[in-house]
Amino acid sequence: MYWGPWRECHTGYAVDARVRHTCSSGGAISSLAIFALQRGLVEQVVHVAADPDRPAANRTIISRTKDEVLSGAGSRYAPSSPLAEVEKLLAARKKSLFIGKPCDVSALRRYAAIDSRVDQIFPYKLSFFCGGVPSLHGSDRISRSLGYDPQDVESFTYRGEGWPGRTQVSDAAGKRAEMSYEESWGRHLSSEVQFRCKICPDPVGGVADIACADAWYGGESGYPKFEEADGRSLVLARTGPGSELLGMAVREGAIELEKLALREIDLMQPAQARRKRLIAARMAAWRLAGRPTPEMRGLEVGSATQKSPSVALLKEFAGTIRRIVQGRI
């Protein structure tokens, strides 16, 4: 009910030390993309990277080499639209590996139902566990807290260069500052996540061929620790093509994996489990306010809700009503 359909569940990391260090966690997604390119399984990778005109923002890029893939590596906590040019991509007929948010992959799956070209052009659809999409106000707050005018920022890296990696900001004069992941996400970005993401029933990439996440180590409190360490990815193969790609990458030494019991994800990603339990309460408040809500079929929202204490559901319902009345959502 929390982690979606799966065939294989692992923790692991990219064998290439550069890939592992550059990426946000263990480099699993980037490693698989690079492997698919170098093996000739696809001609290109469709993903997002920093926008040179506004470094905290995103743009969609097409990568055909390892270095190009790594230029877009690392989490990008800002709005993105990797399917904006999907018709051009389909018309070009170049076999592609797609990396996107869970909602992007879901859209691509839905499109495949009415356009047979989709699965031919995109044989591999990869995603990640998503905490929600913050607006650019979040990155602007980070820049200002580090002493920058957002308009003067020349480089903005949310994560990477270690695990979890630090947020790094620099300007044209070479001035550079950084902030811990725990502070950047916890104090600035998470509060700017749009409400639609807070009622997302599939933030874990349940319809992707492979979904990856941070395989956080738990602390004594039962909540993940964000101390710097060697990157480690959670890797879920969900489909036949996903398992095949993962198996090839392991056999040919691109990625190192260790089997993981599914229940262990609860300790690595407790915030995702909590969100799933509270979605029904948030949607009930939203409906009461006369707002439209998405249909959620086959996603075990009801089962997850039953795992939450009634007090927590009532508190979340009341809190959502309060934020609606206050105009905060």
Automatic annotation (TrEMBL):
Occurrences of domain Coenzyme F420 hydrogenase/dehydrogenase beta subunit N-terminal (ranges): 10-86
Coenzyme F420 hydrogenase/dehydrogenase beta subunit C-terminal domain boundaries: 94-260
Pfam families referenced in this protein's UniProt entry, alphabetically: FrhB_FdhB_C, FrhB_FdhB_N
Taxonomic superkingdom: Bacteria
UniProt name for this protein: Coenzyme F420 hydrogenase/dehydrogenase, beta subunit C-terminal domain
The species this protein was found in: Qipengyuania gelatinilytica
